[in-house]
Amino acid sequence: MTDFILWPITTMEQSSMSFKELAEKLDIFDQERKWINLSPEDLAKSIMLEWAELLEHFQWDTTLKNKWRIPMEKNKEEMWYEAADILIYLMKFCRETQIDIIDITLKKIKKLQKKYPVGYNNTKDDKPNHEAYLKIKKAYRENK
Predict the structure, then answer these.
(1) pLDDT tens, position by position, for the chain (144 residues)?
(2) Residue 74, SS3 per DSSP
């Protein structure tokens, strides 16, 4: 299994922690509290609830920006904790369903590299070509 360094991290001790070490730390934490053998369905719901809490930080941004020209200020620390909650529940979900998240993520990246090859969305002004992305996505869905 490949070790990945997590980012952003605040201390030197934490910055050298691998994904595997983080998973082990979470497992010990959960075992100490008897938070094991949880329902994958409940964990999947928890992932979505935490995503919703993260998304709530962006609720009405477009309306406020467009209608009243109010600059959007965010509590980044609160958003970081929501991201951590998502990761924690995802790691628990993977543990309970025996998903090797590193392995499957690497496989998914290979699939995405084939689906969206380098240069598929090149433009003259170096901005993303959303139409090219949508065209590939539509063709993929039609051929499923």
Answers:
(1) 344 444 454 554 556 789 999 999 999 999 999 999 999 999 999 999 999 999 999 888 888 888 887 777 888 999 999 999 999 999 999 999 999 999 999 999 999 999 988 888 887 777 777 888 898 889 889 987
(2) coil
Calpha distance 40→30 (Å, rounded): 15
The hierarchical CATH code for the domain 12-116 is 1.10.287.1080
pTM: 0.77
Strand runs labelled E in 11-80: none
